[in-house]
Write a structure and sequence with these properties.
The chain is α/β, with parallel strands linked by helices. The chain has a single domain, classed as Rossmann fold. Helix content is 39%, strand content 11%. Helix 4 runs parallel beside helix 6. The radius of gyration is 17 Å and the shape is globular. The chain starts with 40 loop residues before the first strand and ends in a 10-residue tail after the last strand. Belongs to the short-chain dehydrogenases/reductases (SDR) family. Keywords: Oxidoreductase. Its EC number is 1.-.-.-. One of its GO terms (molecular function) is oxidoreductase activity, acting on CH-OH group of donors.
Length: 283
Amino acid sequence: MNAPHIPAQSQDAMPADEHKMDPAPDWKPRHPGVGKLDGKVALITGGDSGIGRAIAALFAREGAKIAIAYLEEDEDADKTRQIVEEEGSDCLLIPGDLGVKDNCVKAVEETVAEFGKLDILINNGAQQWVDEDFADLSEGKIRQMIGSNIMAYMFTTQAALKHLGEGARIINTSSVNAFAGMGSLVTYSMTRGASLAFTRSMASNLTDKGITVNAVAPGPIWTPFIPGTMQPEQVEDFGSGTPMGRAGQPWEVATAYLFFASSDGSYYTGQTMHPNGGMVVGA
C-alpha cells in the first residue's frame, strides 16, 4: 500500500474535525459484507470520526444497527450517519460529554430505546494532547483526560451491563503507547494503560456470563487526533517512522474490532490486537 503524503497541518481543537483533514482518512470497508453482525446492535463511542467512523461503516456493512456517542462534532457525526445509512442500516446519533456519568447512561438507554437491545459496546471515544511540560500540566487537564479516557469507559460499561447477555461483546480502544510509552504523551499513555488493565480485569469478571472483553491497541493512525494534537511540522508525513514507513488508515484498524465483535473471535477474551505497522511491543 502506497503511503499518501500528509502535509503539515493542525487544528486548534480536541477532538479535531475529520472533514478538515488533508488527505481525508480512509474509512471505507474493502470487502462485501457477509452478515457477520446480522441482527446485532452496536454502540460506538467516539463513532463520529476516525477509527470510530470506520468501525461504524464496517459493522453496518456486516448487518449491525449503529448508535454513535460523541462529544460535539455534529458535522462529522452527520457524515457517519449518512455512511451507515448508505450501507443499508440505521444510525442513532447521541451527543454529550461521556466524562459525565449521566451522559454514559443516556447513551446506553437511548440505544436500547431505539433498537430494543444492545449486543456490542465499543469504548473508543477519547482525547489526546501533548504534555509539553508534565510538571506544569494543570489539574484540570489531567482530570479532563481521565474523565474522557478512563471514567467514560467505566461508566458506559456499567450502564451497558444490564442489557448485555450471553454472547455480547465489549471492545476497548487502547494504544501502542500503553505498551511502549511516550514521553510527550504521558497522560494519554497512562489512560490507555488503564483501558488495557480494565479490559483484562473485566474479561475475567464477565467470563462466567459469556461476555467477552478485548482491546485493540492501534499505533500511528491517520485520525483527527493527529492534527488536533501535534504542531504542523510534526504532522507532516506522520507515521513514516514505523517499520511499514507510513501511518495506518482507520479501515485497517476497524477489521480488528470486527474480528472481536463477530463469532470469529468467540474464543478470545482479555486479549489485545496490535494494528501498528510492525512496531513490536509486549502483548
